[in-house]
Design a protein that fits this description.
Order of helices and strands: HHHHHHHHHHHHHHHHHHHH
Oligomer: single chain
Number of strands: 0
């Protein structure tokens, strides 16, 4: 039956969040150290965000299954959560004045998303080309296996299909894996891009687990084993935004298909995932260059620096540096940034003249030598056009997140919900970088293509699509 319930933010919850952002904004004091200044913003913002979520839950627990919440939580995790504890190192890399500028822009980003999600100018009703109304759930296991094979095909080819070599490489330094690619890529990049299908696995695992009565026991075991391998691969990569996005996509698929949500089946998975991500955050920075094996063998995991420190990425540092540098030292990039990021998914083997990068990179702005820097979508937006660009981008993200959440009302089969759950993954990655948006939507388009153009691959006949009753 067509599901009419639509998850949406409450006005009271948004008002509380905006009030908390306002308190944080006015509490910024450049007489304090950068770490303490950020802490006085992180605490009221975190409290306001928690109260916002609590008020939204008063309309039912399913009202929390929204992409905008994932966006806000991901942004808080990437920029502010580390300042809930003292960060003395942060005081050595940025000045109080720069930190204040970064915090002002960050809070504008939060506010833009919070307001944008109430703008329902986009109609959620999908077009016929994207509507997936009557695909049976039995195809989900086949889709999971196909996605797994495509995701790990290039990795297995790189080690002559020796599974032991794959795990051995995962235990070593992340840049020493046999399937690594050059900065500009070549024809092999066409195969390596199939790794994007690993993004489909977490939401599928969440949905299949909730609908496990429809599958055989051995199929559930296969799904859970491959899902565990995928999570381990994300952890071993040392790339926290990828692991966080896997978790977000899993929870998206899991939450969207819970028949009777309650505190037990919502709080326990969320708590487990939350603890796992906090644990991973503490250790992934430690082993990302030396590898898990050496990290364990040398006992580096027990070092005081690891045990007594909680840091994510210090994204507030590059954000502050960017605000300080544009337009005083560098001209705004305008649409150049969007153009470069939009062309990112196109393999260089098909377009040799594809842009190699931005005219001024984030690394150049902050003086990073030999290592990459992420600055979240907020820093990237500011590089485009300053405060106005940050506000417009944040509003746009809020609008798109609300629209994608509302499209869930049109998906009542597992296949359609997989596609919708991938929006949680895209939302989490988008907070990290606008560049990830153009790549993370590719699995969504691929699933629609499978169902519409080559349904025989999924073992189904070409279905006739009719809209559900309104």
């Amino acid at each position: 039956m067509y599901k009419k319930t639509v998850a949406q933010p409450t006005e009271v919850g948004t008002a509380i969040l905006l009030a908390g952002l306002g308190i944080s904004y006015t509490s910024i004091n450049t007489d304090l150290t950068p770490s303490l200044m950020a802490s006085q913003v992180a605490i009221p913002t975190g409290v306001a965000l928690a109260l916002n979520i609590w008020f939204d839950s008063t309309k039912g627990l399913k009202n929390l299954f929204r992409v905008d919440i994932i966006c806000l939580l991901s942004l808080y995790f990437l920029i502010l959560i580390e300042f809930l504890v003292p960060q003395n190192y942060f005081n050595t890399v940025v000045t109080s004045e720069q930190t204040a500028q970064g915090l002002y822009i960050t809070l504008l980003g939060f506010g833009g998303i919070a307001i944008g999600r109430h703008i329902n100018s986009l109609k959620p009703k999908p077009q016929l080309w994207s509507y997936l109304g009557n695909i049976p759930d039995k195809v989900l296991f086949r889709l999971f296996i196909i996605s797994s094979l495509l995701a790990y095909l290039y990795i297995l080819m790189s080690v002559d299909f020796n599974v032991f070599k794959v795990f051995d490489a995962w235990l070593g330094p992340r840049f020493a894996v046999p399937w690594g690619r050059g900065r500009l890529g070549d024809w092999r990049a066409l195969l390596s891009e199939l790794k994007l299908f690993s993004y489909v696995l977490p939401p599928l695992a969440g949905i299949i687990w909730n609908r496990r009565q429809s599958f055989r026991s051995w199929q559930i075991v296969v799904v859970m084993v491959i899902f565990a391998i995928t999570i381990f691969e994300g952890f071993a990569s040392g790339t926290r935004n990828v692991l966080a996005s896997y978790f977000a996509a899993f929870l998206g698929g899991y939450f969207l298909t819970i028949k009777r949500p309650n505190l037990f089946n919502l709080a326990i998975p969320t708590a487990i995932v939350g603890y796992a991500m906090m644990f991973a955050t503490r250790h992934m920075l430690g082993f990302r260059n030396m590898g898990i094996r050496r990290y364990w063998q040398t006992g580096a995991y027990a070092a005081e620096k690891v045990q007594n420190t909680f840091a994510v990425d210090y994204n507030l540092h590059p954000i502050s540096a960017i605000v300080d540098a544009f337009p005083q030292k560098h001209d705004f990039l305008g649409f150049e940034l969007l153009y470069v990021f939009a062309t990112k998914p196109i393999p260089r083997a098909l377009w040799p003249g594809k842009p190699e990068g931005l005219s001024i990179s984030i690394e150049e702005v902050i003086g990073a030598d030999g290592w990459t820097v992420a600055t979240t979508y907020i820093g990237e937006s500011y590089m485009m056009g300053g405060v106005i660009a940050v506000i417009l981008m944040s509003l746009s993200i809020g609008i798109l997140a609300s629209w994608w959440t509302r499209t869930a009302a049109f998906y009542h089969t597992g296949y359609g919900l997989v596609i919708n759950a991938l929006g949680f993954f895209t939302g989490a990655l988008l907070m990290r970088s606008i560049a990830f948006f153009t790549t993370s939507i590719l699995p969504i388009l691929a699933l629609i293509f499978f169902a519409k153009s080559v349904p025989f691959v999924l073992g189904i006949k070409k279905p006739r699509y009719q809209y559900p009753p309104s």
